[in-house]
Specification:
Blueprint lengths: L17 H26 L5 H12 L2 H11 L3 H22 L6 H20 L9 H30 L20 H5 L7 H37 L3 H7 L51 E6 L5 E4 H5 L4 E8 L10 E10 H8 L7 E6 L4 E5 H4 L6 E6 L2 E2 L9 E3 L13 E7 L22 E6 L5 E2 L2 E10 L5 E8 L5 E2 L1 E2 L9 E9 L2 E11 L22 E6 L1
Parallel strand pairs: 1-10, 12-19
Antiparallel strand pairs: 1-2, 3-4, 4-7, 5-6, 5-10, 7-8, 7-9, 11-13, 13-17, 14-15, 14-18, 16-17, 18-19
The chain binds the ligand Nc1nc2c(c(=O)[nH]1)N[C@H]1C(S)=C(S)[C@@H](COP(=O)(O)O)O[C@H]1N2 and molybdenum atom (MO).
Molybdenum atom binds next to loops.
């Protein structure tokens, strides 16, 4: 039997070609992920290996990387993470295949290690329950089975090819040689067609390998599709659609005329729900139904309370416009939106359970394990803190926390806006450290007074002469008293403010400035009703929100 010149090991001549080896690796990993998704889809969507590992990655991400990801990808940070994981997995799978051309062992080890990473990630998830182990374990077993099965077929094919190797059907890689798409007829057309036996065997082993590849690919695709479908039809959309008419509560919003300068380029005063910014750690939106929903309020209280969705809905509901802001919003950033929320006043519920005097904060937990810590003092000073069930006249969108979330005007979302809220524990600051606090962010985080220039855009050009500046300012729960702009470090000039609808919302402004031809630097600053002007010194978003004046460079032509 001819031994390949680049293969000095007699007796180990069987070597899977590079392409089938890579295919085995890719399909082994694909089958693992698909079966993991399928089992997760049936049992517990969050236990999908990809989501579990991605979730663990997010939890372990250092602050600088998280900031970089948000700065680079914005609200597409999760998509970027999933794409990054896909690239890494493809590379690992291909390398596992290439490293296993003589023996299935290295690839098997890689599959087992990946499986163990998924098991460990699932275990580390904050909302872990033992059933969450089944998806990664099923993935491990399926991945291993497909890998070993395909690798065996590939070895047989390689062995058969080696047998007819002298006839030109060698198993070596080389330019122009097609390892993947070949089939029996092309082999029989070769000059060595008289060597029926081995060539026939080669054809059969190739067919079997091909069948295995197609079968594994089809099976993985089907399992993945069913798993995805199960995960996204977890019932939340249907449950949301089934929420009946929302009560018509008297609100302050009969007339919003004059509340914005949208015609001049500011956002509309109310943010359309589909444009409302979204920030959370959930790689896959948690699927809760109103039927399964339960909220526990406990801890430092006189009476524990367990509420169903209907229990909540049957309580007194209030409506309030609230501008929500993310602490990760850079000066001039877009992580701020305004909506009308409908919900149960938090103070009603706190009165119902009877808060003990030693309680300092509300530890809220989402169904996915995410937590916030909300200072009690901030929610009992009369502001419209609530457990919201609706936003802009519709049940909360699933990605904004359906069926119930907390909203507190004047506090950044990470200390107040717990979505998919299922547990509230009255506790002390010492006893409880929230998700982001564990990662270096503050325990107390009132929204800082800020302002933003929306028109003109930085880097843009404007016509020289009189030009319009417009934007928004916010000082939640204090109210914006004044907005000033200046050009090129000159004198501050007052901007015109839009109608004041509520101190808990942002306020639009506009003004005209005279700009001579050339480069100009425009700045804005807001002053709240307490007389405090927003801090000039730039600071990072961590630990409790960015400061500094939004500055926009434009060219007047
Ligand atoms: N369950 C859950 N709730 C969460 C978060 C999260 O990651 N998970 N992020 C918080 C943060 S940081 C912000 S700014 C707000 C954003 O709410 P939105 O996505 O509805 O705009 O949700 C808060 N509530
Ligand atoms: Mo946030």
């Amino acid at each position: 039997m001819p031994i390949a010149t680049d293969d000095p090991t007699p007796g180990c001549a069987t070597r899977v070609d590079a392409r089938p080896a890579v295919l085995c690796g890719l399909l082994g990993v694909a089958a693992a992920l698909a079966v993991g998704d399928l089992v997760a889809g049936v049992l517990s969507p969050a236990s999908s290996p990809v989501l579990a590992v991605g979730g663990q990655f997010i939890r372990l991400t250092p602050e600088w990387l998280k900031a970089l990801a948000i700065a680079t990808f914005g609200v597409y940070d999760k998509l970027a993470l999933l794409l990054g994981m896909a690239v890494v997995l493809v590379l690992v799978a291909a390398a596992a295949g290439l490293g296993s051309r003589r023996s299935a062992a290295p690839g098997a080890l890689v599959v087992v290690l990946l499986g163990l990473v998924a098991v460990a990630s699932a275990t580390a998830a904050p909302a872990f329950s033992p059933v969450d182990l089944l998806a990664p374990l099923a993935a491990l077993v399926a991945g291993l089975a497909v890998w070993l099965g395909l690798h065996r077929l590939a070895m047989r094919r390689a062995a058969a090819a080696a047998t007819v190797g002298g006839s030109g059907a060698s198993s070596h890689d080389g330019p122009g040689r097609d390892d993947g798409g070949d089939d029996a007829p092309s082999v029989t057309e070769q000059p060595t067609v008289h060597r029926k036996g081995p060539v026939g065997t080669l054809g059969a082993t190739r067919r079997r390998f091909l069948l295995g590849v197609v079968g594994a690919a089809a099976g993985a695709a089907a399992a993945a599709a069913v798993g995805r479908w199960l995960a996204v039809t977890g019932g939340a959309d249907a449950s949301r659609a089934a929420v009946g008419a929302l009560p018509d509560v008297p609100g302050p919003l009969a007339d919003l005329a004059g509340a914005d300068f949208a015609a001049q380029g500011t956002p509309t005063w109310l943010t359309p729900t589909n444009a409302f910014y979204r920030i959370d750690t959930a790689l896959q939106v948690p699927q809760l139904t109103t039927r399964d929903y339960a909220l526990r309020i406990h801890g430092l209280v006189d009476r524990q309370l367990r509420l169903s969705y209907d229990d909540l809905r049957s309580r007194r509901l209030v409506e309030a416009p609230i501008t929500m802001t993310c602490v990760s919003n850079e000066v001039g950033g877009a992580l701020i939106s305004n909506a009308v929320f409908l919900g149960v006043p938090l103070t009603d519920l706190l009165a119902e359970v009877g808060v003990r005097p030693e309680a300092q904060q509300i530890a809220s937990t989402s169904v996915d394990g995410f937590t916030t810590g909300t200072p009690i003092a901030a929610v009992t000073d009369g502001r419209a803190a609530m457990l919201a069930v609706a936003m802009n006249g519709e049940p909360l969108p699933v990605e904004h926390g359906f069926p119930v979330r907390m909203v507190v005007p004047g506090l950044y979302g990470f200390v107040s806006g717990c979505k998919w809220l299922t547990d509230m524990e009255l506790t002390t600051f010492d006893e409880f450290t929230s998700y982001w606090q564990q990662r270096g962010w503050a325990a107390q985080a009132p929204v800082k007074t800020q302002s933003r220039i929306d028109v003109p855009r930085s880097g843009g050009s404007v016509l020289a002469g009189r030009t319009t500046l417009a934007g928004v300012a916010w000082a939640q729960h204090t109210g914006v008293a004044r907005v000033e702009v200046r050009a090129d470090g000159g004198a501050w000039q007052d901007a015109e403010l839009a109608r004041d609808v509520s101190i808990d919302t942002w306020r639009m402004w506009r003004t005209d400035v005279d700009l001579s031809p050339g480069a100009h630097r425009l700045q804005v600053r807001a002053t709240d009703r307490g007389g405090d002007t927003q801090v000039a010194t730039p600071s990072l978003t961590i630990p409790d929100g960015a400061t500094g004046w939004h500055t926009v460079d434009v060219t007047a032509i």
